[in-house]
Amino acid sequence: MKPYRLLIFLLLPFSILSCREESFTDKYSSDSAVGILGIGEDIRSEKDIDEETWERGFDTEGYRKYLATSRRDVLCSMIKEAAFLAYSPDRSAEADSVLLLTPDANDFQTLMSQNICKLATRQDEARRFVEETDFPGLMSKADRLVKRYLPKRTISGDVTLNDLYLICTIPDASVRDHSVLLDLNLAMDMKEDEIVLLLAHEFFHNYRETVLTDEPGDSFWKIFNCFENEGIADLIDKGEHPEAMYARYGASFEALYLQEYQNAASTLQKLDSLLPAYQADPVKGEYGPVADLLVFNGHPTGYYMTRLICEEGLRKELIEAFDSPATFAELYNESASRRNKRGGKEYLLSKDLVDYLHLVEE
Questions:
Q1: How many CB atoms lie within 10 A of CB 102?
Q2: What is d(CA 343, CA 326) in angstroms, rounded to the nearest whole number?
Q3: Sign of CA dihedral 212, 217, 218, 220
Q4: pTM (predicted TM-score)
Q5: Per residue in 259-274, is it b (16+ CB within 10 Å) or e — as a string?
Q6: Closest C-alpha to 165, from 69, 23, 34, 297
Q7: What DSSP element (H or E) covers 109?
Q8: Cβ(115)–Cβ(171) under 8 Å?
Q9: CA angle 330-335-339, nearest 5°?
Q10: Which of these, 65, 102, 361, lies nearest to 251 by C-alpha position?
């Protein structure tokens, strides 16, 4: 091989990787979070903040997506109140008292106010964090990581991955309009590896939705689809204590998640019991009794099922069937059966329910 061809051969993988990372540069923005930091500094300097200044902040892409809801005005008012509380010199005693609270997820204003008060105590650190953290690079790492949880047949091809926007709100990471909206204060409390895991979780959904383009409307199929979708994605980032991530929303949320996770077998048994009545008198559209069993969008029950499947040696089969809720139900049953042979007490789905899911899926 000629020297220049050898050089091209050696450099090619690095150039491909570089192009891939550059492709994420246009998919990331910190403008929304930086805008709030700037407003906070003006409030701290006792400058007047007019409505036009707030609107410029809310017109950044991250906030446009976050505020695209019927509650826009309410959320805008909450963000303003949280910022004025956090940064106003004459409200420092009030801010200190808010920092001592243990807000629950239902108290959205206190949760947001406390989070932005925490951010205000480390303003300079926040500026450095935004400037120094290579978020496009983290997104590229997440894209490489997620492929470990996908069958080879889905890795090639054109897949539109979520954009990433830093905003200032409650300590949360949510997905709206094909974008991950990550709270700045939360991001600062996370290690870079944890941010990569979070993004890989969301990218998993992107890859899966390109395959499942024509989903059945059946309620039983839909809930098992959620179990599989969130259950596999949670294998990426939830670890041994999946309830821990909900602690930031308050103790009641954490306890509710843990309760749902521990009661996964009961949820599956209830689904089984609902099928005969439904088949005797089918309902068009959403079937309420099944929809009521979908808590946390299926995260607790789905993760319980996927962990069991992996623990019983069927991870490869799970990944290959990542777009088939019916096969997912079969894999769960096989795993539960294996566990029960060693003295376990896992619930086995009825043959009627598994067959029904396959029928819907055909």
A1: 9
A2: 26
A3: positive
A4: 0.88
A5: ebbebbbebbeebbeb
A6: 34
A7: helix 108-120
A8: yes
A9: 150
A10: 102
Strands 179-183 and 163-167: parallel
Q: Coil, strand or helix: which one is 181?
A: strand
Contact predicate 21/161, CB 8 Å: no
CB 5 within 8 A of CB 141: no
- b/e 126-148 (16+ beta carbons within 10 angstroms → b): beebbeebebbebbbbbbebbee
Residue 106 DSSP code: T
Distance between CA atoms of residues 82 and 176, nearest Å: 22
Q: How far apart are CA 184 and CA 170, in angstroms?
A: 9
Beta bridge partners of 162: none
Per-residue pLDDT of the chain (362 residues), as tens digits, is 444 444 433 444 434 444 444 489 999 999 999 999 999 999 999 999 999 999 999 999 999 999 999 999 999 999 999 999 999 999 999 999 999 998 777 789 999 999 999 999 999 999 999 999 999 999 999 999 999 999 998 876 678 899 999 999 999 999 999 999 999 999 999 999 999 999 999 999 999 998 888 888 899 999 999 999 999 999 999 988 888 877 777 777 888 899 999 999 999 999 999 999 999 999 888 999 999 999 999 999 999 999 999 999 999 999 999 999 999 999 999 999 999 999 999 999 999 999 999 999 98
Alpha-carbon torsion (241, 246, 251, 254), positive or negative: negative
As given in the structure block, the two tokens for residue 118 are: 């925490």
| H helices, E strands: number in the chain | 20, 4
CB 241 within 8 A of CB 303: no
